[in-house]
Design brief:
It is built from 9 helices and 14 strands. With 361 residues, the chain is α/β, with parallel strands linked by helices. It folds into 2 domains: 17-257, Type I PLP-dependent aspartate aminotransferase-like (Major domain) (Aspartate Aminotransferase, domain 2, 3-Layer(aba) Sandwich); 260-359, Aspartate Aminotransferase, domain 1. Strands 2-10-9-8-5-3-4 form a 7-stranded mixed β-sheet, sandwiched between helices. A hairpin with a 4-residue loop joins strand 6 (150-151) and strand 7 (156-157). Helix 2 (44-61) packs across helix 6 and helix 3 runs parallel beside helix 4. The longest helix has 21 residues, at 261-281. It is globular, with a radius of gyration of 21 Å. The structure holds pyridoxal-5'-phosphate.
Length: 361
């Protein structure tokens, strides 16, 4: 059977060469006589995998030495609680920019642990833009300032980071991690669920500045304390071993086959441009987001008719372009074009959209 072009927002495509390598190594990983799924996480051979995974992430993302890389479980959603439990412990205040559903969930969860303040929101226009921020609205003694860097559901992204001064900037980068270079030093903490751009679901990556570790509240569960992971090199308990192994393969793919994050960004910009240029020229389809905030990863669009949207999604799936249905809160379509989506997949999608447009105008 031919592989489909999967435009799902997550879990999403993995690079074909990574899948092939994993398949080759499935029954016998490097003469160990077993798969990575089966081996002890305390074995030398797995230790090498997790260590090289971290080293590769540091290399590819250019993570400064004063940051720890932690491998966790629980998804980005667990970070909505873990961040406040660990960081909201000075003044007990934190600031939030509400740019969509994930940002709002982070805010709501933090509000259970302290004083969570909304600095700005784009809810008035269904999160179709990133609100302008007024520094005078920032809480001067906040423990942190939280943003969602790329809004998976609505298809917007921050193109400029808020200037929070000494207040640690915390960002959910679940749907844009590894899609382009990020200046890690501008952040106190970055977190991401792996299933969009990195690995299968089940791995969560946290990149945290040293000095932010060790401030958790007393009641923080051991497994929700960053210190636990930092002190045990993410091996306090059994880590998501296979996901970490795939993460390592994906990082090797980015470094060796793509040529690093600058190249990755070029490819992602090329893909996004193909789709946005067509949307801007189409008489049938249109993008739903203000141009300057358009995401490189998630591209929502509509025809203006719900029936036609449904017909498009159905016909697209028959042609091998799957999971194009928009999020249930937005409707229409959304094409998620993460790192592993080949340029050719976007070109062929646009070709099909043109065909569909001709038949329906
Ligand atoms: C997918 C996603 C989440 C939720 O991730 P889980 O790993 O399922 O908890 C949170 N934030 C963003 C930006 C996402 O894209």
């Amino acid at each position: 059977m031919a592989r489909v072009y999967n435009f799902s927002a997550g879990p999403s495509m993995l690079p074909e060469s990574v899948l092939k390598k994993a398949a080759l190594e499935m029954l016998d990983y490097q003469n160990s006589g077993q798969s990575v799924m089966e081996m002890s996480h305390r074995s030398k051979i797995f230790e090498t995998i997790i260590q090289s995974c971290e080293a590769l992430l540091r290399e590819v993302m250019e993570i400064p030495d004063n940051y720890k890389v932690l491998f966790l479980q629980g998804g980005a959603s667990s970070q909505f609680a873990m961040v406040p439990l660990n960081l909201m412990t000075g003044s007990g205040k934190a600031d939030f920019v509400i740019t969509g559903q994930w940002a709002n969930k982070a805010y709501q969860e933090a509000a259970r642990y302290g004083q969570a303040n909304i600095v700005a929101s784009s809810k008035d226009k269904t999160f179709s833009y990133i609100p302008k921020l007024d520094k005078s609205e920032f809480t001067p003694d906040a423990d942190y300032f939280h943003i969602c860097l790329n809004n998976t559901i609505y298809g917007t992204r921050f193109t400029e980071l808020p200037d929070t001064g000494d207040i640690p900037l915390v960002a959910d980068i679940s749907s844009c991690i590894l899609s382009e270079p990020i200046d890690v030093s501008k952040f106190g903490l970055l977190y991401a669920g792996a299933q969009k751009n990195v690995a299968p679901a089940g791995l969560t990556i946290v990149i945290i500045r040293d000095d932010l570790i060790g401030k958790a509240r007393d009641i923080t569960p051991t497994m929700f304390n960053y210190k636990t992971y930092s002190e045990h090199n993410s091996m306090y308990n059994t880590p998501p071993c296979y996901q970490i192994y795939i993460c390592k393969l994906v990082l090797e793919w980015i470094r060796d086959e793509i040529g690093g994050l600058k190249k990755m960004k070029e490819i992602n910009e090329k893909k996004a441009k193909i789709l946005y240029d067509y949307l801007d020229s189409s008489a049938l389809f249109r993008g739903t987001v203000e141009k300057e905030y358009r995401s490189l990863m998630n591209v929502p669009f509509v025809t203006g008719s719900e029936d036609l949207d449904a017909e498009f999604v159905k016909q697209a799936a028959e042609r091998g372009f799957v999971n194009l249905k928009g999020h249930r809160t937005v409707g229409g379509m959304r094409a998620s074009i993460y790192n592993a989506m080949p340029v050719e997949g976007v070109e062929k999608l646009v070709e099909f959209m043109r065909e569909f447009e001709e038949k329906h105008s």
